[in-house]
Amino acid sequence: MTARIIDGKTVAAALRTQVAARVSALPFRPGLTVVMVGDDRASLTYVRSKDKAAAEAGIDVHTLRLPAETSQKDLTARIAALNADPAVDGILVQLPLPAHIDSIAIVEAIDPAKDVDGFHPVNAGRLASGRATLVPCTPLGVMKLLAHANVPLDGARALVLGRSAIVGRPMAALLLAANATVTLAHSRTRDLPGECRRAEVLILATGRAEMVTGDWIRPGATLIDVGINRRAEGRLVGDAAYDSCAAIAGAITPVPGGVGPMTIACLLENTVVAAERRRG
Ligand code: GUN
After folding, report:
1. Which of 2, 112, 247, 255 has the most CB atoms less than 10 A away?
2. Rounded CA gap, 167 and 161, in Å?
3. Percentage of residues in the chain with pLDDT exceeding 90?
4. CA-CA distance, 99 to 4, in Å (whole number)?
């Protein structure tokens, strides 16, 4: 079997068009501030992409670039000012932050109503208890790809590989809310290949280049690869060894061009959702 390709670029483009239409119907421009501390290369690339996409959707986006030596106190004060600014609907603090900053405390300083990343414990708690909330962009994007590809989730056996707060945990909560039978597996899981082979829907979010090979895949399974890893020679690869997995899976997302574009499109959607809720 050769897997059907789930094209994230096309689905993301459609979502961005939809968000732009929603923005143009509003009597105000939703405001988004992206906070970036230091000059991590990969983060800069992500921040620029977010800025460009938000501007194209008609969002009033600002990037607040702060020096790497910014203190916890200064950063917290900046967040407090953004919380208090009525023109700001969404606040995104790009992670990772420099090592001297307590990232968890910074995320907790963001007003949950403006937390377009969905990382604040109030939003994480709402998601875990099955209530409507701002949902982290990458897992939200995965759910939209699954819906687009008509992948049945009700009663399906789903496995999420990776237990990060940004992807794995919220991903498991969303799949559970969609009535899947969810396994959240990680580096300490016994017989990882065997666990993966049981899954009808497999979500990879380990950040380990090409660790999952075709012999881990149940024939016909849907494989969603959240990983974006750069090989030494510069090539981007996912957490799946693409060719060997695509030979066994029923459907698969490519890297790049799978989940990645959905993350940004969902950020735009979350910004509009936050703006509509805040401003009634
Ligand atoms: N760093 C890597 N992914 C993300 C993300 O989704 N949001 C933020 N704020 N930082 C990140």
Report:
1. 255
2. 10
3. 99
4. 42
Ligand 1 binding pocket includes 117 (Cβ within 6 Å): yes
Q: CATH 3.40.50.10860 region(s) of the chain? A: 29-112
Is the pLDDT at 171 greater than 90, yes or no?
A: yes
pLDDT in tens, 89-102: 999 999 999 999 99
Supply the pLDDT for residue 280.
Answer: 82
Taking only the tens place, the pLDDT of each residue in 44-76 is 999 999 999 999 999 999 999 999 999 999 999
User: Is the minimum distance from the CB of 135 to ligand 1 under 6 angstroms?
Assistant: no
Q: Is the pLDDT of residue 1 over 70?
A: no
- Pocket residue to mutate for ligand 1, from 166, 169, 267, 268, most atoms within 8 A of Cβ: 166
For the domain with range 136-260, which CATH number is right: 3.40.50.720, 3.50.50.60, 3.90.1150.10, 2.60.40.2890?
3.40.50.720
Ligand 1 centroid – CA 80 distance (Å): 20
Contact call for residues 159 and 202 (beta carbons, < 8 A): yes
Q: What is the value of pTM for the model shown?
A: 0.97
Ligand 1 site, residue 137, Cβ cutoff 6 A: yes
Question: Considering 89, 115, 117, 239, which one is annotated as catalytic?
Answer: 117
**Which residue intervals of the chain bear CATH 3.40.50.720?**
136-260
* CATH code linked to domain 29-112: 3.40.50.10860
pLDDT at 181: 98
